[in-house]
Specification:
transmembrane helix, MnhB, 72% helix, two-stranded antiparallel ribbon, 2 domains, mainly alpha, 2% strand, 315 residues
Length: 315
């Protein structure tokens, strides 16, 4: 057995074991920590499958951002978890759940195994048209040229999710500061990390964002790193979240989708179709869209983790 095969088998068994443990464990916080580990393991699997873009997204969004949101939710459920832990589903419910899970898993396995060899793919067509976009990263070309409508809707959905979180705020706090005001020991390890890591994280995040046009990376991965650095500073009490009534905040939140939509509709005039790019201008327009989306995504992701406005708006 080669070393690569041994690593692949070990990763597969470890992912299955962690997934089973997440389902079986009764403690919510423990399940969330398992989910974060599960996401990081999936990122390693995507690396083994030679898909670095997907690996970066899984580590940043799947394991990082989603894990942070679930940790916050688990913390809010601590008070009620003791009561719900005493409840245990009956034999019938557990049996039906097991049958459903096995059926779905079997259907997925049959669907994958029934694919012809080689499996149908649009990869050759995408690679053949890559030169028309001017970018070197096929993933970026797919996301912002060949299926740009999906990417636009994803950005809008993330923004709508933030508005949904804000809508849960009490009336007295509307327009106020999201989340509590954090305080930490100014000489403690958290404050030290909040001073040491953000300069490095900002450089890494901006680098991953900028190279995304030609190499693995992109706006979502870079924005997640920048949002994490901002949240670290907030958690250490070195800064506060901005009140959601600030005009500059609302402008930056909508600027990305608005620029995307404007360039998309301009394509109907300059290139004959909505979300099409005129010949020779595809890459500059793609880069312009990503630059406009960057602050939108950074603010949206960070404020999603911060939660609902809880403190009165400034007078």
């Amino acid at each position: 057995m080669t070393l690569a095969l041994a690593v692949d088998i070990s990763l597969t068994l470890l992912v299955l074991a962690v997934a089973g443990w997440i389902i079986a464990v009764r403690d919510t916080f423990a399940a969330v920590i398992g989910f974060v580990a599960y996401g990081l393991l999936l990122a390693l699997i995507w690396v083994r499958l030679a898909a670095p873009d997907v690996a970066l997204t899984e580590a940043a969004i799947g394991g990082g951002l989603t894990g942070a949101l679930l940790i916050g939710a688990a913390g809010r459920l601590r008070k009620t978890e003791a009561a719900t832990r005493a409840e245990y589903p009956g034999v019938l419910i557990r049996t039906l759940a097991a049958i459903l899970a096995v059926t779905v898993a079997a259907a997925l396995a049959v669907g994958v195994l029934a694919l012809p060899d080689p499996a149908p793919t649009l990869a050759p067509a995408a690679v053949a048209s890559l030169a028309t976009t001017g970018v070197g990263n096929p993933v970026t070309a797919v996301l912002l040229a060949f299926r740009s409508m999906d990417t636009l809707l994803e950005a809008i959905v993330v923004l709508l999710a933030l508005l949904g979180v804000w809508s849960l705020a009490p009336d007295r706090a509307w327009g106020g500061y999201p989340g509590p005001r954090h305080h930490a020991d100014p000489d403690g390890i958290l404050a030290y990390l909040a001073r040491f890591l953000p300069p490095i994280g900002i450089i890494v995040g901006l680098y991953i964002f900028w190279i995304g046009a030609d190499l693995p990376g992109g706006k979502f991965q870079g924005a997640t790193i920048l949002a994490a650095m901002w949240l670290l500073v907030i958690e250490a009490g070195l800064a506060d979240t901005p009140p959601i009534s600030r005009t500059w905040l609302r402008v930056l939140l909508v600027i990305g989708p608005l620029v995307f939509i404007a360039i998309g509709f301009a394509g109907s005039i300059t290139a004959g179709a909505v979300l099409a790019y005129p010949e020779g201008y595809a890459k500059p327009l793609i880069v312009a869209i990503e630059i406009a989306l960057m602050p939108t995504l950074v603010l949206t992701l960070a404020l999603l983790v911060a939660g609902t406005p809880q403190r009165m708006p400034p007078q």
